[in-house]
Amino acid sequence: MSEILVLVEQVDGEVKKVTLELLTLARGLGTPAAVWAGPGYTPDAKAKLAEYGAEKIYVAGSEEITGYVVGPKAELLAQLVAGKSAAAVLVAATAEGKEVAGRLAVKIDSGVITDAVGLGDGFVAEQSIFGGGVNVQSKVSRGTPIVAVRPNSTAPEAAAGAGAEEEVSVSLSDAAKSARIVERVKQEKGARPELTEAAIVVSGGRGVGSAENFSVIEGLADALGAAVGASRAATDAGWYPHQFQVGQTGKTVSPQLYIAAGISGAIQHRAGMQTAKTIVAINKDPEAPIFELADYGIVGDLHQVVPQLTEEVDKRK
Amino acid sequence: MNIVVCVKQVPDTATERKLRSDDKTLDRDAVDGVVNELDEYAVEEALKLKEAHGGEVTVLTMGPGKATETIRKALAMGADKAVHLLDDALHGSDALGTSYAMAQALKKIGFDLVILGSESTDARTGVLPAMLAERLGAPQLTLANKVEIDGTSIKIQRITDYGFDRVEASLPAVVSVVEKINEPRYPSFKGIMAAKKKPVETLGVADAEIDAGQVGLDSSWSQVVDFAQAPPRAAGTVVKDEGDGGAKVAEFLASKKFI
Ligand SMILES: Cc1cc2nc3c(=O)[nH]c(=O)nc-3n(C[C@H](O)[C@H](O)[C@H](O)COP(=O)(O)OP(=O)(O)OC[C@H]3O[C@@H](n4cnc5c(N)ncnc54)[C@H](O)[C@@H]3O)c2cc1C
Ligand SMILES: Cc1cc2nc3c(=O)[nH]c(=O)nc-3n(C[C@H](O)[C@H](O)[C@H](O)COP(=O)(O)OP(=O)(O)OC[C@H]3O[C@@H](n4cnc5c(N)ncnc54)[C@H](O)[C@@H]3O)c2cc1C
Question: How does pLDDT run across B149-171, given as a tens digit for each residue?
């Protein structure tokens, strides 16, 4: 069977969950081949990729690959698609993942599907569009399918693969090296999982009331091992950093569980969280539209309900 | 400095958006069009850069006839002129087709800097800025929350999952902006009046040297196979807090094995 290239997402050498999800998906469609782009490859990473089914692991460890914006990763993938006659390329539908997919699409003259929430036979992708209102099946009709898949679209399942390594060297074009990354600034985010990847997200809105009060939301998130999100009302007010905004002009999340506290559920907020599997809402207004989506809702003051919930979660651990 | 800002007309998100049953494309006639919100930030950034460094701001829109409303809004904010890429042959273009057509138009217009929003609210692919950088062979300075220009060198802060990257390049370049890079201005009455007299050039595929065989629905690299209205979510349970609301949620979460 032909190879399905999976671009590995990693932080400090640790493979991200979304990559394991993509390997799981790829197993159903062909021979999964992981692509490691940049330095930081370790035996642990190899073990993880093989555990989830990578038959091949292409390692392009050059510093140059991560020294410039997006271009080098696209060039690496283009080289592998041609050299290995890959059947498809899967990337995570993060902002950068989609950019890599876009440049690759132009390079290899192939179509790209973004934000797939499922992928089946014949590389037919499921998309959930218009804030979750419409479900679409789409596919690439010209070239080698490139699909950007949303994190949490499928449950990662282990199934050992050979994990045969192959070193890859790329000679980058000048165009790929035209936007140079001179510094990476890591803003403190503690031990919480990343917002778009997290299985559980706890979000706070205007109802939280202040920046200080976001500690209530963080407390629950930490008890659940969840990421923290925020509505635009909360980020606009400066209570929580913008990178945690969920919604149309923020991040799109698709977790197993989404807890919205003090969020009314405006259409633009829903656009970013509507595909969550289970939704819990805490709001003092029984008419709040968020209750239309909620699997479970509490009409009440979040400042009472959330700390009590945190305590209960801690008790049950 | 010659700045081109790409502005898309999108359906108002507050209205119900639909796909057409005939060709499965977005029904743009059925809904009110508004300026894609992030593109207002792109226009604002272009105007600020012009104010600081001089030059001219050109608006580029690809879209049906009614997209002129969007062009007027950008002109009313202060852009100098506009190019409307308008041709029935472009209808149904996917991201590759759109980026190809827009790159051809950009080559014709000429630019030192192209500025886009980082994502539209209708298709939300977020790929166009990267595709344009690739097609134009220009540095990709995307997802910027800060842009600085000094002569022909340009620096941005690119937002990332862990914070941001500082990125440097030389003009000409392609920039995309995120929300909160600035506060878009409202068009003044004077601006709205002035916009009516600003030049809007219409380009068809032939004018922009676009190969009609590479654009439009039939030539697209991707296709919609089928679509359906999402089934409504099953109604959930909503209970009033009687002092045990937190405990009740905990019970629910336990029943779903989250805790
Ligand atoms: C083009 C565009 C793009 C947008 N993009 C986004 C986006 O990406 N993300 C986003 O979130 N929004 C976005 N918005 C804004 C969106 O329309 C809403 O304004 C926003 O989501 C409201 O945030 P909120 O629910 O926190 O605030 P509100 O709508 O003010 O709701 C606050 C809620 O908290 C409840 N509440 C108050 N106090 C308490 C309490 N003590 N306990 C419990 N409940 C309480 C209230 O009953 C109310 O329901 C966008 C808007 C536009 C026009
Ligand atoms: C629901 C839906 C899903 C789709 N999914 C796919 C898909 O998976 N793959 C695919 O190839 N195509 C897809 N398309 C087609 C896609 O809409 C078009 O290719 C579109 O022209 C470009 O995509 P975008 O709006 O997502 O651009 P984005 O990359 O999200 O937009 C970024 C910026 O590019 C600029 N821009 C975008 N379009 C224009 C324009 N027409 N005129 C001026 N500036 C513009 C704006 O500054 C905008 O902020 C989809 C369309 C719809 C309606």
Answer: 999 999 999 999 888 999 999 99
Sign of the torsion formed by the C-alpha atoms of A293, A199, B157 and B56? negative
Closest approach of B244 to chain A, Cα-based (Å): 8
Cα separation, B202 vs B204, in Å, equals 7
CATH at residue B109: 3.40.50.620
- For residue B239, tell me if it sits in a domain: no
ipTM: 0.94
Distances (CA, A) of A3 to A141, B39, B198: 19, 39, 54
Give pTM, 2 decimals. 0.94
Give the domain extent around B106. Answer: 2-224
> Do residues B92 and B63 make contact, with C-beta atoms less than 8 angstroms apart?
no
The whole-angstrom distance between residue A275's C-alpha and the CA centroid of its chain comes to 13
Q: Which residues of B touch A291 (CB under 8 A)?
A: 236, 238
Count of domains forming chain B: 1
Which chain A residue lies closest to B38 (C-alpha atoms)? A249
* CB-based contact B95 A187, cutoff 8 Å: no
Tell me the CATH number for domain A3-177.
3.40.50.620
Which sequence spans correspond to the domains of chain A? 3-177, 200-316
Task: Find which of B165, B249, B255, B258 to mutate to test the A interface (most A CBs within 10 Å of its CB).
Answer: B249
The CATH architecture of the domain made up of A200-316 is 3-Layer(aba) Sandwich (3.40)
With a CB cutoff of 8 Å and minimum separation 6, the contacts of B85 are: B60, B61, B62, B63, B101, B102, B105, B203, B208
Closest CA to B133 of B71, B70, B176: B176
